[in-house]
Design a protein that fits this description.
Elements lengths: L5 H15 L8 E3 L1 H6 L3 E6 L9 H15 L4 E5 L3 H13 L2 E6 L5 H9 L3 E4 L4 H15 L10 H7 L1 H9 L5 E5 L4 H13 L4 E7 L4 H8 L25 H8 L2 E5 L1 H15 L4 E3 L19 H10 L6 E6 L12 E3 L2 H12 L1
Parallel strand pairs: 2-10, 3-4, 4-5, 6-7, 6-10, 7-8
Antiparallel strand pairs: 1-2, 9-11
This protein binds pyridoxal-5'-phosphate.
């Protein structure tokens, strides 16, 4: 197993926190009456939905861009993403004065593209899906000898995301367990490394959609698996894990447990965030029969049931839990044929899942 150095990671995360402080928000840690009532304990939500650009991704993007600028002020970078990472990198590059090209697939949603263009992104289209666009971005970076900014498999990106863990421990020192949504693992690896370095008794739980649980299944198998993903409402946490990713050994060694969340439970979570925490979600009308992944509001993983289940096995976990919402509204798809996430739609999804 690859050895990890927790003290070094802690130092990097602390340095990242100082570096990005002028550019990112310290997001609130909000007490959730609704979730606390459903569970025997106090549940808090770290509102990364209130972060600049609507997700935690700006933490890693600013950390990476600031380090790059200090090493090579004129460097041009590439990245590939049509979602939160792209928007975060665009803002970070513009703010710190770097230039960069974002690779998108040919058939990316025009609304997503427009949001990036509005922020001033330089875009290049390649291929028919995200993997082809990323391959092209990496290839270009290699040919031109310039950096490619991975959304998760990058030390500065991961340690930038780890600043969320530092804020949680500072704002809720007696937290018992932290639940984190996981895709490629940059967010949880940063948070878990910090927590295990500073207060190892705090449990860290990775949450993935059952439809796309590559990291959880890879950790279980002891190696990174190449698994297909099904469409999921939580599209930010969908997708595979790159071979050799630095996030994998950290997930293996610092994450205490994993929960897989079904689509109807994710739908419950979206509805709950609207009803209890006054969040608004937009969604394409054609759902749920087709194209769920195109515009999904599920940027959080919710878990009252899982919290209970997890507790059954580990009654010593204590009362303070912290869930991480990682963004709420999807700014992309707001023009066109949309409607507000509604009770009616919520019911439709639940029924659909039951069939
Ligand atoms: C909103 C949101 N949440 C969670 C994730 C997962 O983050 P990571 O890939 O670092 O695990 C992403 C990744 O794009 C995201 O956009």
């Amino acid at each position: 197993m690859v050895e990890i150095n927790l003290m070094d990671l802690q130092a990097r995360i602390e340095a990242a926190a100082d570096r990005i402080a002028p550019y990112v928000r310290r997001t609130p840690l909000e007490f959730s009456h609704g979730l606390s009532e459903k569970n025997e304990g106090n549940v808090f939500i770290k509102m990364e939905s209130e972060q600049r650009t609507g997700s935690f991704k700006v933490r890693g993007a600013f950390n990476k861009c600031l380090v790059l600028r200090s090493e090579q002020p004129d460097v041009h970078v590439t990245t590939a993403s049509s979602g939160n990472h792209a928007l975060a990198c665009t803002l970070a590059m513009k703010t710190v004065g770097l230039t960069g090209t974002i690779y998108l697939s040919e058939n990316v949603s025009k609304t997503k593209e427009l949001a990036l263009v509005r922020e001033g992104a330089i875009l290049r289209h390649h291929g028919t899906d995200a993997v082809e666009a990323e391959t092209k971005a990496r290839q270009t970076a290699q040919e031109e000898g310039i950096p490619f900014i991975s959304p998760y498999n990058d030390m500065e990106v991961m340690t930038g995301q780890g600043t969320v863990g530092k804020e949680i421990l500072e704002d809720l020192p007696d937290v018992d367990a932290v639940f984190v949504p996981v895709g490629g693992g940059g967010l949880i690896a940063g948070i878990a490394a910090y927590i295990k370095a500073v207060k190892p008794t705090v449990k860290v739980v990775g949450c993935q959609p059952a439809h796309s649980a590559v990291m959880a299944k890879s950790v279980e198998a002891g190696r990174i698996l190449d698994l297909p993903s099904l469409d999921t409402l939580s599209d930010g946490t969908a997708g595979g894990v790159e071979e050799g990713s630095i996030t994998f050994p950290i997930c293996q060694q610092c994450v205490d447990d994993w929960v897989l969340v079904e689509e109807d439970v994710i739908s419950d979570a979206i509805y709950f965030m609207m009803a209890d925490h006054h969040k608004t979600c937009f969604l394409e009308h054609k759902l749920p029969e087709c194209d769920r992944s195109a515009a999904t509001p599920a940027r959080l993983v919710w878990l009252p049931e899982q919290l209970k289940i997890t507790d059954c096995g580990r009654s010593s976990w204590g009362g303070h839990r912290c869930l991480l919402t990682d963004s709420t509204e999807v700014p992309w798809e707001v023009s066109g044929n949309h409607f507000l996430w509604s009770k009616h739609f919520h019911r439709e999804i639940k029924e659909n899942n039951r069939m």
